[in-house]
Amino acid sequence: MDNTTVFFQGATERLMGHYSPVHNSEKIAIIFPPHPKSFATSNNKVVKTIARSFFDAGFSTLRPNFRTQDSSGYFNKTSSISEEELIKDAVAAIDWMQDLHTSVKEFWIGGFSFGGWLTFNLLMRRPEITGFISVSPLINNYDCSFIISSPSDGLIICGEKDKLISQKDLKKIAIRLNSKNSNIEYLLVKNGKYNLSSENELNTIKQSMDCFLNKKNINIPDCNNQLINRDNTNEAVIENTLHDDIMEENDQELVLDEA
After folding, report:
1. Where are the domains of the chain?
2. Residues 136/158, Cβ–Cβ less than 8 Å
3. What is the pLDDT of residues 138-154, one digit of tens each?
């Protein structure tokens, strides 16, 4: 997976990202990192794992950084940057990627932490998005009142022991996103915490993504040969916890617990 450092114009300044093209691909994916105030960048392990799965599925990928942030994570204006300004950076990345790839059949977005929340926001703004991957989205830190049902398929992944994210609230969001025309899967990484940065946890993210994309007829080599251990509690394992809840959804107002 070759990476090329690219620069493109954002709303107020040049932005930097890592671009990995696939020749003649009609599939693109953009993967967003955590909030700059965490000093995490597009080189975050989870972000790179999401990008790797997309690349293996034949997507040209872009991992952008936010404004005033370089590959080392240097960011000195956290107090003055609003979520709306970071959303503008994300939109600039989308526009740059779409200008580069004018004939696209699959357009997916992904993200981790703040980037995971950002996928929900962009999903509501950009109807051309065909699917999303959201890992540990910080839904209790940012507004989620805008979320409605979506025709796009998506995979939401969260650690079972994540103390920053309410599983109850995240499940509400997954149910609300689900529609008659979409398939939303909500997966818990057993024993996983917020960062999901261990080798086993990263492998679990990769394998669950690979198989989810495969079910969307986005073929992944050897997906059926990838074993996800569901019995050994010492391993990073996943379980789908959403199906029964969707069947019981009664269209109540989406109200999240306070952080």
Report:
1. 4-247
2. yes
3. 999 999 999 999 999 99
Helical spans, DSSP H, in 78-198: 83-100, 114-125, 167-177
The phi-psi region of residue 172 (left if phi > 0; otherwise alpha if psi is between -120 and 50; otherwise beta) is: alpha
Dist CA 29 CA 123 (whole Å): 13
Residues in Cβ contact with 116 at an 8 Å cutoff, skipping those fewer than 6 apart: 32, 134, 135, 136, 137, 138, 156
Q: List, for residues 189-229, the tens digit of each pLDDT value.
A: 999 999 999 999 999 999 999 999 998 877 665 554 443 43
Fold that domain 4-247 belongs to in CATH: Rossmann fold (3.40.50)
- Contact between 111 and 137 (Cβ < 8 Å): yes
pTM: 0.87
Rounded Cα–Cα distance for residues 191 and 41 (Å) = 25
Q: Between β-strands 4-9 and 184-189, what pairing exists: parallel, antiparallel or unpaired? A: unpaired
Residue with tokens 């915490």: 193
124 in Cβ contact with 146 (< 8 Å): yes
Instruction: Look at the alpha carbons of 46, 48, 49, 54 in this order and tell me if their dihedral is positive or negative.
Output: positive
